[in-house]
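User: Show me an example of a complex going from sequences to structure tokens.

Assistant: Sure. Here are the input components:
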Amino acid sequence: MSLQKVSPGRATLAEIARDASVSMSTVSKVLNGRAGVSDAVRERIEGLLHSAGYSRRGTAYEQGKLIELVFDNIDSEWSLQIIRGVERVARENGLSVILTESGGHLSLSPDWIDGILRRQPVGVILLFSNLSIDHKRQLATRNIPFVVLDPAGDPDPDVASVGSANWAGGLAATRHLVELGHRRIAMVSGPLAMLCSRARLSGYRAALEEAGIPIDPTLVDAGEFHYEDGVAAGTRLLSRADRPTAIFAGNDLQAFGVYEAARMLGLVVPDDVSVVGYDDVPSASWMGPKLTTVHQPLIEMAEQATRLVLALRDDPHRKLVRIDLATSLVVRASTAPPRG
Amino acid sequence: MSLQKVSPGRATLAEIARDASVSMSTVSKVLNGRAGVSDAVRERIEGLLHSAGYSRRGTAYEQGKLIELVFDNIDSEWSLQIIRGVERVARENGLSVILTESGGHLSLSPDWIDGILRRQPVGVILLFSNLSIDHKRQLATRNIPFVVLDPAGDPDPDVASVGSANWAGGLAATRHLVELGHRRIAMVSGPLAMLCSRARLSGYRAALEEAGIPIDPTLVDAGEFHYEDGVAAGTRLLSRADRPTAIFAGNDLQAFGVYEAARMLGLVVPDDVSVVGYDDVPSASWMGPKLTTVHQPLIEMAEQATRLVLALRDDPHRKLVRIDLATSLVVRASTAPPRG
């Protein structure tokens, strides 16, 4: 069922074994991520596989019927929605999902890639974008396509990825507050090392600019997307004499933290301060008041990434794409015109 | 590396093929969940495998290094913690986790079991307990152990399972309210078809009895563990002229719903009504006020289930066990003495 075309000049495994002065079985071990090969030999063979433009013909599709989903950390409702989206499309295609947590180092152990090479999945979906060049080459020579979902940093141009319209989301959230009449609008951004955070922050700035509201850098704080960061930044911002009348948080968890900061200071949301979140995780609707937030279509993004990896499998010469799905503002009860 | 002993009188596959009047390759297809065998022949071979006490010798352990985790529905923070616990122990043991969502029918499609038989995982962790006798036999003849995690119904005596001390949790939650001075204590139970819900309800009743408080059946309502059920039941209970001064909810989501019911009726938690939840999902700490709840050690339960399935794999003759982990009450800000 392999749709891949065999290039006429493609190196065979026998040629690679000959060039590396090793047996076919040694090449096969490297190709399948198995033990019993020295690091030096492994490296030599990987180099030859790459420079020869080797690409394994698709046979695993019928065997394993696996798709791999790799997180740094499975630690929020956010992760859960990604899992559900991938699981749904995988099931439609008769595939099983292998879930891996790399352990939050934004980098993967060598074991991880060996496991993938052994299992020969149909494809890999990564929740981070900084895959090393070596790992990219290893996946390419084994003909295992991969897609980066919601990249935290700038994805390389040679990587297919699915994200969402973060800039437009930041713009919509801030415009909503401007339209309610707010002028002192703060932002508790996510980590600025992440591209998505920077895009949301740019959207916030653009909305202020188009309304002719000067940007006050002291009203911009940043956290690591955790509840506690929202409590800390919210407390700092809301303790000021000239406190903001509205706060846009870089994600829902930070918005929940801002709620707590307001409660501790005796302020009422939205009477004293309006709050907008980002993501629209299920608990946004359980808060009191229910959180106005930017809906990020996480399940659809995960579905899209899974479909994209399957399309790349069927046609490895497909042009690589970056897909951004639309975000939308969901107005609930945490925003109101400013007092006064 | 198989530790399994081969019984001297064990039927061989050749004998089973002979008894079924089929070829060895047909028996092998059935054993490995592959297509190309009629239902009638498949059924005959399954029957012979079972009655002959056939048990495949463990060779897959080195090959697949997979463990399967099967949910009805991956739909709450609850699921996420289970996934994290299983993932953690799997990683320690060099295993990958295959995640399957059966689609919420509390029953599995035949495809599902074929997938398992093909993949030959080290073991299976099920988030529901009503596995059919046929499926149990199929797993047993392939020497694939399984463990039921947090059974919703009565687990069969021939099934290993990991749960938590639900009765003790219900007792502790209600005792806490009694000790604060509450006498009109309502319960919004989870679905009574689930054993865990019935155990929590029994714990609630036991705490009232030991305090000499008569049980008022009109103060007991039940939901399906959803936020909306908490809103509906909370609204009914708190709209009564003789409304309860405290509500024990069968899980945290229902407790969040009770918060909303109180807000809509202009009541303040905990001044007008105390609320206790069950589970201690992360968002319990994000609510205003932070929710007093019974901590269920979900991650530890998942870890324990994974270790148990690995132990069963190494020693299939191990005595089956049911492990219940302890629950503990976490007192936060949603409970206070009743207004006097």
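The lines above are the inputs; the final block is the predicted structure for all two components together. The interface with chain A takes residues 65-66, 74-77, 79-80, 83-84, 87-88, 91, 94, 96-101, 103, 111, 115, 118-119, 227, 253, 256-257, 259-260, 263, 282-283, 285-288 of chain B (CB under 8 Å).
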